[in-house]
Every structure is written in structure tokens, then in C-alpha cells.
Amino acid sequence: xxxxKTFSPKLGKLLKGAALAALMTTVASPALADWKRYESPRxxxxxxxxxxxxxxxxxxxxxxxxxMRMFMxxxxxxxxxxxxxxxxxxxxxxxxxxxxxxxNVAGFYLPTDEDIFAVATRGTxxxxxxxxxxxxxxxxxxxxxxxxWFVEGFAEYYAPTLFKRNETQVGxxxxxxxxxxxxxxxxxxxxxxxxxxxxxxxxxxxxxxxxWLLTHWFMGDETRRAQLHTYLSDVGxxxxxxxxxxxxxxxxxxxxxxxxxxxxNGRVPYMGVRTQFPEIExxxxxxxxxxxxxxxxxxxxxxxxxxxxRAETLNTIRQRAARYPNEPLALLIHAHAELHNGRDxxxxxxxxxxxxxxxxxxxxxxxxxxxxxxxxADKAAEEDDHDGSQRLRREAQTLLxxxxxxxxxxxxxxxxxxxxxxxxxxxxxxxDMQILDIAYTLAPQLGSNRYNYAAALLSRGRNEEAINVISxxxxxxxxxxxxxxxxxxxxxxxxxADEAAAEEALRRKAAEEGEDEGTDxxxxxGDGT
Length: 529
Fold this sequence. Notes:
The protein has helices at 51-71, 91-97, 127-141, 148-158, 175-183, 189-193, 207-219, 222-236, 241-249, 253-264, 290-300, 307-321, 328-340, 345-358, 363-382, 386-406, 411-421, 430-442, 447-459, 463-474, 482-492, 496-517, and strands spanning 3-4, 36-39, 43-47, 84-89, 107-111, 116-121, 162-163, 167-170, 270-274, 283-286. It is of the alpha/beta class. It has a six-stranded mixed β-sheet with strand order 5-6-4-3-2-10. A hairpin with a 3-residue loop joins strand 7 (162-163) and strand 8. Helix 14 (345-358) runs antiparallel to helix 15 (363-382).
């Protein structure tokens, strides 16, 4: 396996990101429960396991963030507006948070209106976590209308990064992806290169391995890295991704396919970079006793679950929270459960008001109390109590104003401010646009932030900006958003008929490509394995 010892990155930052400089000091806190909170400059880990495991994960993730910043030409010392919370759990802990999930899942990442967090299983190699963090990182500092294949390929290229004593190995070949490509029938290059693959695309199961291989091929050579920069810029400007690839590389889809086969069957290189990382400062804080009973159930409330499970969780939280009548964490999670699972905003509001008598500066309590009041406002409006509805909305806005004064970099506060205004005749005002912009800047990973901001931009006639904001949501290979796609078409001045015609053209091109290749399998040119 060839090792390239030098790397001169050509893939520059396409959109300027912003970061706040911050340093954490090490402050030891006595443990009050099994659960502890570990905090570094860019991450927060909640763990009830051994200290060393949480610390080692933080150190690896901090290095991982720095190495991606270095390769992408970003500020290597930059830190995000919001640190990513990670819950380091056992297999049973993961199932507590996501009870309806696949039992084979080693971890997951979830952006929601109430939190953006990741879950990792103890004793794993952190590949899944690094893959998901690469997506999080890209959507933050490098948010751009990338085609779906590069979104996935980027994460798969960086996730296997290995940190040795004085060297970091980047682009280490993924044996699982390589093995899959050796026996899977490959999808057409035209469909791979599309902004996102058609649901009916043939050989769709090869999409992720091919996305990894194409990204690896580009990143493995300085000339090709320059071609990748040209290609991504071209696609981001609205060019057809298949045509842009031919223009950047000089290769037709069939020629690209054959080139990738040869690359896969050769000695796939990786980058060996001499690195020395600064010592990571980590603070540790013990959580209150209620964390043992309620912390993971509190995260489950932010995950989609069945109605039966929602009712079961509500009853469990009620029973456990009763043990801690004046504990802020227990009151917060109990109120959230009454609001989310019990659909009882009045009961939730009562619990949150009690919490605020204990801790008057509890930002999350203010946010959930604002949510409860907005729900009550909607109910009042349905009952034709318009004065009551407006009063509740004003109360919610006051709470959010207080929350903003205490934490002006909290995307949830901005999101709720915008929600409180949506539906008003004057919406979106200049102030609304500023709030939406801040919410999007703080949490560009959240689909609702993108959709709401893009819709507001479109209403102001700022179509190009709307396209840039909404395209990453539409191009997401993990799942289709019909509402986002409809918004993008409107911003582009296109119709559903135009889109259907483009889909049909792509289908025909893929079929012609298969005919040119002379096979639908894995043998092209006789050099398949």
C-alpha cells in the first residue's frame, strides 16, 4: 500500500464559516451520580463508564476535527458555536434512547428541533461516530450544494482516520467498502453523479461504496484534487453534475467507471501526515442523582417512537421523577414528557414554572415553557379565544427574550422565536429574517432551520440564496424531503414536469451507459475482481 508523506490541499473552503474562540479549563467536580459530563473545546460527552474511555474519545474527536480543518483549509484552531453532545452508552443504553431502532446499530447522530446530538456505544472503534461527525462538520463549516455522492464520500474518506504516535493516516482504505465493490453490480456513473440517486436506480446498493471510491480517487492525487475543486464549484453554480464531471476530468461516465475499477484493483494510497496535537483540556462535572434514572429517557423523548412506547415512557418518567420533586433535571425531563408524550402543555407549564423558582436562569426550562405556552396559544385560538392566544404568545416571547440574554448562541431559542412569529401578517419582517439567519448559522445541520430560512428568503425574492440553503437538504442521500424539493423547484423557477423530464433523461443516460459498458455486472474491461 503506497503511503504519500506530503499533502498540499487544493480543495479550499467554498463558503466562509465562522467560529468563536474558546478554551476550557480543567475543573474537577465531585461525582454526584454515576453519570458525568466531560467537556472539551468542541465536544461534550455524557458517560457513566470509566473516565479513561470518555477522555480518550474526546481526545480522538478533537484530533479528528483538527485534521479535517487542516485538510479543508479551515482555521485549525476554530471552534463551533455549539459543542456537539455525545452520549457514550452500553448497548442497552442505546436501545433506551432509540427503542425502535435496529439492534445492530453501533451509534447514531440526530439533528432535531430540541437537540442535535450523537450516541456512541462503548467498546467500538468510533468509525460510525467519526462518519457522522464528518457530516456534522461539513454541514457546519462547508455548507454548500454538494452532490449526494460527495456528501457520503467525504464522510467515508475521513472516518477511518488513524492517529499514531507522531503520524496521522488519512484516507485509509475501507476494506468493507472495497470488498462490497468486488462482488456488487455497480450502478451507472450517471446515476451516482446525480445530485441524489433515483429511488428506482438499478444496483442502488453500490451507491455508498462507489461514493467512497470516487472520493478516494479524487483525494489520492494532487491533480485530481484540483479537478475535484473545479467540479464541485461547477456543480454548486448549477451545472449538471454529469456534464461537470466530464468537463473537470475529461472522462465520460463509461471511462470514469473503468478508471475507478483500475484504481480499486491497484494499490490504493492513503496520506501519512506528521502531526503533533496540542494537549486537550477537559473539564469533568458530576451529574445529579436523577441522571441515573432519567438522563437517557430524556434523550428518548427527542427520538421518534411508537405511540405505545411513548405512553410507556411517560409512565416510567412520572414514577422516577417523583423521587426528585425539587431536582431541576428531573423536573425538566418530566415536563418534557408531559408536553411531548402526554400532550398536556398545562401540566408541563406547571412543572417548568416550579423549576424556574428553583433556578431562575435555567435556559432549557424557559425554552420548554415557551413551547408549552405556544401550544396553549394554539388551543386558545382553536377555541376562538384570540385575546388569550395573543397573551400566551407574548408570554412565550418574553421567556425567549430572557433565554436569549442568558445564552445568545442557542439555536433552539431562535427557532422558537421564529415559530412564534410565523403566521403573522407581517412575517417575515427584517427582524424575522435576522432571527432565521442566526438560527441557520448556529445549526445548519437542522433541516427545519434550512427549510424555514430558505422559504423566507424565497418570499423576499432572494432565490439564489434560497437555493444554496435548501439544496443540501434536497441532495441528502439518506432520505428524500418532498417539501424541500418543492421549495427548491420554486426557487429555481422549475416545475414538477421539468423535474420528471430530467429524471427520465437521467434514466435513459444510465441505460445508454450500461450498453456502452457492455455489462451490468462487475467485470468491465476484464479487470474486475
